[in-house]
Each structure stands twice: as structure tokens, then as C-alpha cells.
Automatic annotation (TrEMBL):
Classification via InterPro entries: AceGlu_kinase-like_sf (IPR036393), AcgluKinase_fam (IPR004662), ArgB (IPR037528), Asp/Glu/Uridylate_kinase (IPR001048), Glu/AcGlu_kinase (IPR001057), NAGK-C (IPR041727)
The name this protein goes by in its record: Acetylglutamate kinase
Organism for this UniProt entry: Arthrobacter terricola
Assigned protein family: Belongs to the acetylglutamate kinase family. ArgB subfamily.
Gene Ontology biological process terms in this record: L-arginine biosynthetic process via ornithine
Pathway it works in: Amino-acid biosynthesis; L-arginine biosynthesis; N(2)-acetyl-L-ornithine from L-glutamate: step 2/4
Molecular function per GO: acetylglutamate kinase activity; ATP binding
Amino acid sequence: MTAHTRESTSTSTDPAKTAQDKAATLIEALPWIQRFAGTTMVIKYGGNAMVNDDLRRAFAEDVVFLHHVGIHPVVVHGGGPQINSMLGRLGIESEFKGGLRVTTPEAMDVVRMVLTGQVGRELVGLINSHGPYAVGMSGEDGGLLRAVRTGTVVDGEEVDLGLVGEVVGVDPTGIEDILAAGRIPVISTVAPEIIDDGDGDPATQRFQTTGQVLNVNADTAAAAVASALGASKLVILTDVEGLYGDWPDKSSLISSLTATELREMLPRLESGMIPKMAACLKAIDEGVRQAHIVDGRLPHSMLLETFTTAGIGTQVVPDEEVNP
């Protein structure tokens, strides 16, 4: 239950002591770098880390750092705040049902434009300010993502959300090609809609695209990508410190828990945390070794969670890996 052990860190104004502390941090990171070098890490980028300029720059630095210590980062992003802003500027109403955006064809044009043409391009530019690393792509490129249309239930009634989907398939070939070329994929979460025109037998499924593109949840898309790539880690940046055992009691932050423990907690969680923790659980169930919820409001939180013994967020591990 406590794969991370919380440790206190002292501060000092002594330059020699400060230098020693920095060296100690680097040495502390060494076994983690050795462990994860050569593996793929999928990072879901969103929340405040996406709209605050300082946090955006820090995130780009983290991704480049991972790349240079031999880890293969894959960034999957949404863009809720930017979509809301653009819809407002264009005078398009944004309706939510059950906490989910109802996506009309008109709104979908904006979602597609903002995610692929604005958010993705800005992130590619930030990463590439450090060198020619990032390559932007969307779930439409090379059949990367496949999605089916999904609704929700509000007060016991099925609700149509329009062009909203759930990722049901990933073809990682395009991502693997970019990684093999030594680049960093940056993926926008829109996906072609598919239908199964077979007889319902999994052995004879024949998926056909409808020609429509769906707005898909970035958390669940990142989990699906992590599973398809056999990633060592899924890291989801969010706007809280991690998972709390007894929200809103800040002292109840959980450092680490197993898939079974999370499965038992899931129905009791706050609605905003359910998609993120469900994504972590899906990734673990499908073979990803570790999944993390990390506070994206803290600069370099992703590195602190990955390369320090104490960690700062919440990690989910398989049941057999109680103390990795």
C-alpha cells in the first residue's frame, strides 16, 4: 500500500549544502532512470498545466528530459479550456449533460480544430524549442484510434451526447514509427467512428468507419494508447495532488494502492476523479506496470513522481506488485 515512502527534505542557504542536495537528488534518480530507460511512458497532458505559461514550459522541459535519459515519452492531450474559449468566441453554445459535453456537428468542427490545430501545435512548438523532437498527430492519423459513439445516463434516463465516443481500439504502428525515428509523438484525442457490421461474433468482427469523427475522453484514450504500446507507465496530470482516501481531508492523500484497492474505492470517488482513476485501472488491468495521478499545478511534478523515492502523487500498481 505504501510503495512510496514520504520523506522530509531540508532547505539550506549554504551553497555547498545546496549543491550536495542537488547531487543527492540526481543520485536518487539513478536507479529509476536505469529501471525505465528504454521503456515507453504515456503522459496525459491537461488541466492547469495546459493553460499556465510557466507550467506549459516546465512540462515541455520534463518531456525533453525524459527523452534524453532514454525513456520514450508519448504525450496524449485534451483541451477542454481551449475548446470552451473558442466555442464562446464563435457564439456556439456548449451544453453539458451528466458532466459531459454534448457535441453537435458544429461543436465537433471546433473541437477538431482546437485540439489538432491549436493545442497540439502549441505543445509541439514548446517541445521543439529545445530541439527537433516532437511530431504532432491525431487519433485520425493512420487509423491510430477507433471509437464508438457513447451516451450517458442522467437520472436513470439514457442521454444522447451527440458526437462523443469511447476509444475501443488502437493501432500503435504510427506511434511506433515516430518513436523508432527518435521523436516524441504528441497525440490529439479525436477519433474516427466505427461500427461493427459483422454478426456480433468477436471472431468475425468487421469494423467499418462511418466517416464521422468523435470527441473522445483524453484520460481513457491515454490508457488505451498505454495498453497498446505496452508502456511501463501511464501518467495523468490533473488539478489535484492525487487520490484522497477521504476527500476533502488533505491528510488522506494515498501515495500508492493496488488495482484491487482502487476497484473497491472507485464507486465512492468524486465524479471528477472517476474517469481518471478508471483510466489508471484499465491501464493496469491491460498490462501497464504503473499508473500515476500527478498534480499538474506543480512544476516538474512528473519528474518528482517518476524519479524520487518519496514521489508526490498517487500511483496504482498491479496486485502482485505491492512494493515495487
